[in-house]
Write a structure and sequence with these properties.
By secondary structure, this protein is α/β, with parallel strands linked by helices. The protein folds into two domains: 174 residues, DHBP synthase (Alpha-Beta Complex), CATH 3.90.870; 93 residues, Threonylcarbamoyl-AMP synthase, C-terminal domain (Rossmann fold). The chain has ten helices and 15 strands. The chain has a nine-stranded mixed beta sheet with strand order 2-3-7-4-6-5-9-10-11, sandwiched between helices. Helix 1 crosses helix 4 and helix 9 runs parallel beside helix 10.
């Protein structure tokens, strides 16, 4: 299969629509990461996502819709707090989980009774979703467990020859996947941390819980159960307070002839005397935006990536730390 990478315009959107409505899959940009899209009503198309990615079949997908789409046909109940959160944060990097009307394919939720819905803010995503005017099931557009893609090239590197089209919308600005929020209870509950933080949710609706997956527990959101976001080279993760041990390991491995790179924020980069550094940036949003890009750069140049956790680990950094821990296994 020939994989085309095309800028987003009338011609490429028309092609994407045809592919989706013919049961195919298409990669498209969002503000967080690139997604791998299929018609959520088409079971065969949805199953092809799992096949192409090598994704476990108990790991549910998120449905993406455009900003004017009426989700009342997809879910049974939208609590008042969810409406307030939608007003505050959508379109944007927030996924909300509702009770499903079971109108989309059961393969989307892996047979579960809930449905995760997201309204991305990326202009290219909105153009694509309005063009097809369907609920679109879409996980990240990469091989399962590999680092999530934030550029069209990342998608191409993973899925060349496996999908017909990648809509190129430039580098994603957010950099880590959306926050996933369970909206089926009396109080919203964070299932996966992201750019919309628990504190931000609580500031709008008063309170917000956080779910912790226990051994043997049922997966309620993508990204909860499995190793994810992993580069194709060995990694080590050190706590900020243990960063001097990371520097020592860097020097030890370099002396052995191992090509080692440090992955860290700009504060640590300035402090250390290590030469090969993958700099994540200074602010929370910069670090989140650069994390996957730098992990992918690291796997191209390094024999070993030594990651040093940022000192700040709340707010947006909760999501960053979640990804770092899963990336480093």
């Amino acid at each position: 299969m020939n994989t085309q990478v095309l800028p987003i315009n009338a011609e490429s959107l028309a092609l994407a629509e045809k592919l989706i409505k013919d049961g195919g899959i298409v990669a498209f940009p969002t503000e967080t990461v690139y997604g791998l899209a299929a018609n959520a009503y088409d079971t065969d198309a949805v199953k092809s996502i799992f096949t192409v990615k090598g994704r476990p079949n108990d790991n549910p997908l998120i449905v993406h819709v455009h900003s004017a789409y009426d989700i009342a046909g997809l879910v049974t109940d939208i609590p008042s707090y969810a409406k307030a959160l939608a007003k505050a944060f959508l379109p944007g990097p927030l996924t909300m989980v509702y009770r499903s009307k079971q109108t989309v394919s059961a393969a989307v939720s892996c047979g579960g009774d809930t449905l995760a819905i997201r309204v991305p803010s990326h202009s290219g995503a909105q153009q694509f979703l309005k063009q097809v005017n369907l609920p679109i099931a879409a996980p990240s557009a990469n091989v399962s467990k590999h680092v999530s893609p934030v550029t069209a090239k990342h998608v191409y590197d993973d899925l060349k020859g496996k999908i017909p089209l990648i809509l190129d919308g430039g580098k994603c600005s957010g950099g880590i996947e959306s926050t996933v929020l369970d909206c089926t209870g009396n109080v919203p509950c964070v299932l996966r941390s992201g750019l919309i933080t628990r504190e931000m949710v609580a500031a709008v609706v008063g309170e917000c819980d956080e779910y912790v997956l226990k051994d043997g527990g049922k997966v309620r959101s993508p990204g909860m159960k499995y190793k994810h976001y992993s580069p194709a080279c060995p990694t080590r993760l050190f706590d900020f307070n243990d960063r001097y041990s990371a520097y020592a390991l860097y020097k030890e491995k370099n002396a052995e002839g191992v090509n080692v790179w440090i992955l860290c924020d700009d504060t640590v980069a300035v402090e250390s005397d290590c030469e090969r550094i993958l700099k994540l940036g200074e602010s929370e949003n910069e670090i989140a935006a650069n994390l996957y890009d730098k992990l992918r750069e690291g796997e191209r140049v390094a024999d070993l990536i030594i990651a040093i956790a940022p000192q700040k680990q709340d707010g947006v950094m909760t999501g960053v730390m979640n990804r770092l821990k899963k990336a480093c296994g």
